[in-house]
Amino acid sequence: MASISGAQVDALDLIFQGLRSKSHDVRLQSAIDLQRHVSDSVHDASSDASVKLWEETINRRLFDLVHSQSNAEKLGGILAIDYLLNAEGEGALEAQRNMFRFYNYVKTLLPNPDINVMLAASKTLGHIAAVGGSTFGDHWLDYEVQAAITLLQAEKQEAGRYAGVLILKELARNSPTFFHSYIGLVFEKILVPLRDTRVIVRESAAELLAACLEIITLRERQAKSPFLVRILQEAQVGLKMAQPEVIHGSFLTYRELLLHGGMFMKESFLDAAASILSFKSHRDALVRKMVITLIPTLAVYDPQTFAEHHLHQAMAHLLTQLDKPNERSVAFIAIGHVASAMGSEMKPFLESIMLHIKQGLQMRGKKNAPSEEPIFQCIGMLASAVGPNLTKLLHDQLDLMFDCGLSEPLRQALTAIATHVPPLLKTIQDRLLDLLSVLLSGQHYRPLGAPASILRADSGSKDVATADVSSSRTLESFGRLTCRRVPPVLPHVVTSQLVDRERQTKGTCTGA
Predict the structure, then answer these.
(1) SS3 of the chain: helix, strand, coil, percent, to 5
(2) Is Repeat a UniProt keyword of this protein (predicted)?
């Protein structure tokens, strides 16, 4: 077996230089290169040389990275460890031998003053638990959980509490079988982070709760787990308190119970929905926004009961939020998700929704104009939900939609419309051909042999010819349509039908 060559050492020098970069993309590529290097190159070395390489080069440099004063270098070290866990061949054996060392490197960053460093470190800790946690012995998880619980209860609400939540969340996600015995302990302490004054801590605590609920619903047969009963009662109590952070924490609990608690919320559904909607005009903006985002969660959980008891009240509220600049985007998306759950039950609200969509698109380029992406997402979900019921209302909006220019959100909306509202397929094809003709030639599209008088004076794409069109990204996505280049903004069936229409209109092309 050969020793480690100078060329390999030089390659590692370049890799670790990249891991110190301030650019995430450079660090990511360097981590990938390091994984590939230890998988493909190190196996050619002798055993002694390989051990020496890891001890004197890889491990030492990883240590330097995670203990650096630079957050970028810390992130590079974390990323390198994460990818080394997926090494193959001899590299995998060495990574396994160094697993506990990697664990200690990562744990030094939990807690850490930088949130991004803690997030990355916790995810890699979870990866270590999934790949090699069982090799650390029976007491390792017990130690980790107890230490994280201690951080969770720290009186100083700084980095420690957030780190404790992150650690527990990753352990629950990546070692669910072993973590199950600690569920009771976590539920005793989880109210602390769920009611923390910082949103990021509460959101992470909700993710921890979700991971615990997944474990409970998969491993416990009883319909009403005492853990779920307890956390629901705590959420109900929280809604009676005055602090906005406590109310928000209760809403997060409701959300996770609805999403991850199986049928547990069935009996409490009506009370939960009524309680949530009662806060729709709360003085706190985050609480009001949480009500908006919970409405589709309620609709998905029990569509029939929601439609019978709360749909009209909920939709009336969402429609009023479309007039408020700060709530408009989240309300459009919420309406789309409600439509996905309700289907034809949305018919009474279509005219009002489409009127707000029209008003939003007409504001393009003006002060306080709404973002187009949530509008297009809403349109796509509406089209999927109610299909041809939207034909006339959507037909009147197509010009406004194409005025916005080609974009990924528009592509997705057109895909949904073409798939679920077939009467609009030909109209969309015509708009696309005209739009692409303007993009590529500066002239409106005219079928071969058609008189100039049939051309529309305004194709709805007046701004597109001079727009960036997402630079080369949109143009690179263009494909061949007979002798024309068109973007794949519609599903395959639409493109095929466009080809057929072109052939029927102007015959087979004879040249490029």
Answers:
(1) 75, 0, 25
(2) yes
Domains and CATH numbers, the chain: 1-136 (1.25.40)
The pLDDT tens digits of the residues spanning 90-99 come to 677 788 889 9
| 84 closest CA partner among 36, 24, 12 | 36
Amino acid at 475: L
The candidate with the shortest Cα–Cα distance to 53, out of 66, 34, 77, is 34
Q: How far apart, in Å, are the Cα atoms of 249 and each of 228, 266, 327, 331?
A: 15, 21, 20, 21
CA dist., res. 194 & res. 201, Å (int): 7
Q: Is residue 277 within 8 Å of residue 271, measured between CB atoms?
A: no
What's the CA gap between 311 and 178, in Å, rounded?
42
Q: Please provide the DSSP assignment of 165-222 as one string.
A: HHHHHHHHHH-HHHHGGGHHHHHHHTHHHHT-SSHHHHHHHHHHHHHHHHHHHHH---
User: Is residue 484 within a helix (H) or strand (E), and if so which, with residue range?
Assistant: strand 484-486
β partners of residue 45: 2
Q: Which two tokens stand for residue 435?
A: 């739009």
**Below-70 pLDDT ranges, the chain:** 1-8, 41-49, 90, 156-157, 221-223, 447-512
* Helix, strand, or coil (residue 348): helix
- Six-digit token string for 210: 């979700």
Cis ω before 111 (30° cut-off from 0): yes
**What's the pLDDT tens digit per position in 166-182?**
999 999 999 999 999 99
